[in-house]
Design brief:
heterodimer, A: mainly alpha, globular, B: mainly alpha, 434 Repressor (Amino-terminal Domain), about 55% helix, DNA binding (chain B)
Chain lengths: ~210, ~70
């Protein structure tokens, strides 16, 4: 007999599968896959990361919309957990931060795709700078309001991802300098470092028991 | 670092959520300390000591013994 937690996860997985099927079918109908096939590999990777951030951000915003929804949606919520307006507000801020991250990753490839290059790209660049400034401010605010476990996990994720990115960057740069591998674009490097940060921050959070 | 937080908390009849609320941290922080996944900062350790009314070294267990001082 499955526990109620396992049952709940199975139900969620089934709902997710149906949602994914419908979403995939709709995307196919609207020609999204043909469109993706024409994109460079690095843009496909950054768009996939952006889609992940978008979904996580939307999930966070929906969960933070009420304490009842938070209790139902947060996997690590336990009866009696401190759950006041501050918790929900910071989850909302996190959700907005994730959506901003998705927008920042999506905008440059989409702008190029829609012909915003040369002088026409200047307004896009200004918009990106404004979004980036907003995200930096938001992240600083989230960090200031976090408790010490979250700050420790953030610091570990930053250290770990810097170390891995630096190692990978040096390795690839040295091989490229020796003519053994090709050069990669800045966009590819940015996408890789973002992906590394996401993976390392999830590992840091698990190690510190933040999902418990 | 090993600690007796879970025992002290149970003796005080507090849930992880109750203790987290008293200290202004998340329940995950209390859980991480109890399961040795996180060593709290000195201010948090001192607040724990005040809440339970015991010295810090009754909560956190350290088997390190200091070497003899050169002029000791």
């Amino acid at each position: 007999m499955a526990s109620s937690g396992t049952r709940r996860r199975l139900v969620r997985a089934a709902v997710g599968a149906v949602f994914g099927l419908v979403l995939g079918f709709a995307a196919g109908q609207f020609g999204l896959f043909d469109w993706i096939e024409q994109m460079p590999g690095e843009d496909i990777a950054s768009t996939a990361l952006a889609a992940l951030l978008l979904l996580l951000g939307l999930f966070a915003l929906v969960a933070a919309s009420s304490s009842t929804l938070y209790r139902r949606m947060a996997e690590n919520y336990q009866e009696g957990d401190p759950l006041d307006g501050t918790v929900l507000r910071y989850l909302r801020l996190n959700g907005i931060g994730l959506l901003l991250g998705a927008a920042l990753l999506l905008a440059p490839p989409l702008a190029v795709r829609f012909g915003y290059t040369g002088d026409a790209a200047i307004p896009v660049a200004i918009g990106l700078a404004a979004l980036l400034a907003l995200q930096v401010w938001l992240n600083a605010r989230i960090r200031r309001g976090s408790d010490e476990l979250t700050r420790a996990a953030l610091a570990e994720a930053s250290i770990g991802s810097f170390w891995l990115s630096q190692l990978g960057l040096f390795g690839w740069a040295a091989l490229a300098r020796l003519g053994l591998v090709g050069e990669v674009s800045l966009w590819t490097l940015m996408t890789l470092s973002t992906a590394i940060y996401m993976v390392v921050s999830i590992i840091a959070a698990i190690r510190r028991g933040m999902f418990a | 670092m090993k600690n007796r937080l879970r025992v002290l908390r149970a003796e005080a009849g507090l849930s992880q959520g109750d203790l987290a609320g008293l200290l202004g941290v998340s329940r995950q922080t209390i859980n991480a300390v109890e399961t040795d996944k996180y060593d709290p900062s000195l201010p948090l350790a001192m607040r724990l000591s005040k809440i339970f009314g015991v010295p810090i070294d009754v909560i956190f267990l350290d088997d390190w013994t200091p070497p003899e001082l050169p002029n000791g």
